[in-house]
Design brief:
Blueprint lengths: L3 H4 L2 H11 L14 H10 L15 H10 L9 H5 L1 H10 L15 H10 L9 H4 L2 H10 L9 H5 L1 H10 L15 H10 L15 H10 L9 H4 L2 H10 L15 H10 L15 H10 L9 H4 L2 H6 L4
């Protein structure tokens, strides 16, 4: 432990905090009342607010500095600050999770909760139940945070009209919809048109549905991952997928990784897709040239003979 004289020396403590990150927990009680000492400690670690003198837990500057460093720091603030709308609004704009420790009345406040959700989407978990049932509010939250439907009231997740509006804003909200609505063709189609990877959450029957899968892969090539195996063998679907995301070649049936047109389309979109091409096509100069023109690092996946090719090396910026 520190000698008493040194422990009580303000400048010594401050210097220790600056250079050695001395926890406020170990600072003498009298110095825990000192704003400068506490602020220095909080700037090192927001959790230090827990050990500050009660008077400083009412200090807006101190608490806001703590929240900025530590998202749960509002827990240690004085109750008056947790009820202070202006202060809580400032706090949740810094760290959305701070909503968890706000007064219950402020968890009903749309502006406060939406600001929290904008900063940290999962903060919606701590909103008042009334807001989780509020259609307009949850839709606004989904715009800020794509997974907000997960925290919505169960009644909204079963509501067809609401879920349709939600997936039109963010397709992957389909994950949190009621299971019955994942079987609803109109909802699933709207979801995959907004974000192809929403196909992941659709009922299995729709993963065989040509219109739905084609819409999904055209929006996001990686949706091919969740398509039925028969469609991964279908040339039209795979070509559409790799044109959107070259690396979707990874999810194509093995036979289509030998298809020259498909592989060429893939590497033109993303050179590194060459990695997933059949070995024979890694010897194809046109394909390798297209790949390295798109992404020079694709050269590493070319056949050894083509790595020495002058034209290809030049395209890859090597001499």
């Amino acid at each position: 432990s520190l000698p008493l004289k040194l422990a009580q020396d303000f400048h010594f403590i401050k210097q220790l905090q600056t250079k050695k990150n001395l926890p406020l927990k170990y600072v003498p009680a009298d110095l825990k009342k000192n704003k400068e000492i506490v602020l220095a400690a909080i700037k090192q670690n927001g959790q230090a607010l827990k050990y500050a003198h009660e008077d400083l837990k009412k200090d807006r500057e101190i608490v806001l500095a703590a929240v900025k460093r530590y998202d749960r720091a509002l827990e240690y603030a004085h109750e008056d600050l947790k009820k202070d709308r202006e202060f809580v609004l400032a706090a949740v704009k810094q760290k959305g999770w701070a909503l968890r420790y706000a007064h219950e009345d402020l968890k009903k406040d749309k502006e406060v909760v939406l600001a929290a959700v904008k900063q940290e989407g999962r903060a919606l978990e701590y909103a008042h139940e009334d807001l989780k049932k509020d259609r307009e509010f949850v839709l606004a939250a989904i715009k800020q945070y794509c997974w907000a439907l997960y925290y919505a009231h169960e009644d909204l997740r079963k509501d067809r009209e609401f879920v349709l509006a939600a997936v039109k804003r963010y397709g992957q909200a389909l994950e949190s919809a009621h299971e019955d609505l994942k079987k609803d063709r109109e909802i699933v189609l709207a979801a995959v048109k907004q974000h192809g990877c929403a196909l992941h959450y659709a009922h299995e029957d729709f993963k065989k549905d040509k219109e739905i899968v084609l819409a999904a892969v055209k929006q996001h090539g990686f949706a091919l991952l969740w398509a039925h195996e028969d469609l991964k063998k279908d040339r039209e679907f795979v070509l559409a997928a790799v044109k959107q995301k070259g690396l979707a070649l990874r999810f194509a049936h093995e036979d289509l990784r030998k298809d020259r047109e498909i592989v060429l389309a893939a590497v033109k979109q993303e050179g590194l897709a060459l990695y997933y091409a059949h070995e024979d096509l890694k010897k194809d100069k046109e394909i390798v040239l297209a790949a390295v023109k798109q992404k020079v690092w694709a050269l590493q996946y070319a056949h050894e003979d083509l790595k020495k090719d002058k034209e290809i090396r030049l395209a890859a910026g090597r001499h």
